[in-house]
User: Which sequence fits this backbone?
């Protein structure tokens, strides 16, 4: 190992420690809830020194936001291959609605954010908007998607619609109903006609399947 | 005056004092902002004793919410006669969008609530939902309005859509643009087709006119 590798190794070590802390935070949040978790709980679970936390995160809020961003990124990791398999952009809102509801509701960091609407909306916008802007641009240009008020209006409204629906899903416990509701609302917003919407929602039901239900709170919070 | 009138007179006096305090609170909020206003400011402006405030309101939050409710009720006082004049239920979302944006943005209590999304949504739901449920029920039943996900979904989503749009209007200062945007979003949600939407929004522009622009922040906050 020559000297030139050393900075890289330090970078890698730093990244590994950060991932260790983030991973530990998730376990602690699931076990105790975000509001009851302490920095000490997290560094204990990660088996690192207390001060190490602050080399990576300025505050508890910052690590909660980092966890939430991981969840939102996970949504696109789940959604992309399904969408490529389906090959039809109109399915994105349906598949996306199912995955995003299941992933976010399973994550205590996201549930914490539901109580802080502006933080929630900012986080969703930061991660989801660039992805959606890219994935939908062509379809908006050629008129397959006709978002009311234009594409930017849709990207801006999306996190608020999602927040309203997640909040209802958390209240009622019926995630499946609200992921379909969210899909229908999204399709209407995008100007997809009702008959096509019914078949798209049906198709997305088969594509996403029950497997992803393992992302639900019962499974991963246990 | 016989003894039987006395309780009524007390009730009337109590109501007058409450109105006096509410009126004074509005002036104070406009002059100093909600966050800087004190109970003392309000009782001074109303020329009542400090303790009188607490005969009517338990806290500052409670009087802010009461002021916000008055604003939301004002919306329906403005909207109802215009709608009767127009005689066409599809115009309700357009007229409503214009009036509600102008009234709410002009009211410091409502702007304060925009920072507290769940309070905002609750207040809008409490006052606006019963009114809308009544005004739109027949049109939903006979299919003139086809809200995606059903009428309750629309009533539930409405405050969130409004919040998102008001927030943008406050950011950009362009109330007119965002009241039309909100009207288009509402009409799409209600299943009105795009060509009709354009003519409805135009018609509502003439019906509401510039007069109501006096409700804007520049006019009433000065």
Assistant:
């Amino acid at each position: 190992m020559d000297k030139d590798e050393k900075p890289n190794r330090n970078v890698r070590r730093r990244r590994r420690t950060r991932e260790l802390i983030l991973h530990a935070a998730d376990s602690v949040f699931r076990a105790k809830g975000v509001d009851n978790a302490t920095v000490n709980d997290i560094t204990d679970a990660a088996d690192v020194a207390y001060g190490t936390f602050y080399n990576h995160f300025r505050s508890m809020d910052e690590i909660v936001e980092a966890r939430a961003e991981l969840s939102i990124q996970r949504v696109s990791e789940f959604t992309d291959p399904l969408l490529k398999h389906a090959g039809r952009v109109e399915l994105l809102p349906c598949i996306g609605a199912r995955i995003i509801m299941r992933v976010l509701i399973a994550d205590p960091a996201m549930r914490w954010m539901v109580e802080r609407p502006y933080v929630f909306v900012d986080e969703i916008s930061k991660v989801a908007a660039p992805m959606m802007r890219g994935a939908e641009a062509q379809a908006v240009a050629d008129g397959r998607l006709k978002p009311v008020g234009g594409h930017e209006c849709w990207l801006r409204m999306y996190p608020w619609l999602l927040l309203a629906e997640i909040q209802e899903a958390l209240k009622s416990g019926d995630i499946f109903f609200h992921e379909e509701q969210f899909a229908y609302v999204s399709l209407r917003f995008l100007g997809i006609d009702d008959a096509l919407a019914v078949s798209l929602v049906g198709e997305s039901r088969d594509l996403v399947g029950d497997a992803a239900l393992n992302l639900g709170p019962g499974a991963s919070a246990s």
Remarks:
- Chain A has two domains: 1-57, 59-220.
- The CA atoms of residues 129 and 155 of chain A lie 6 Å apart.
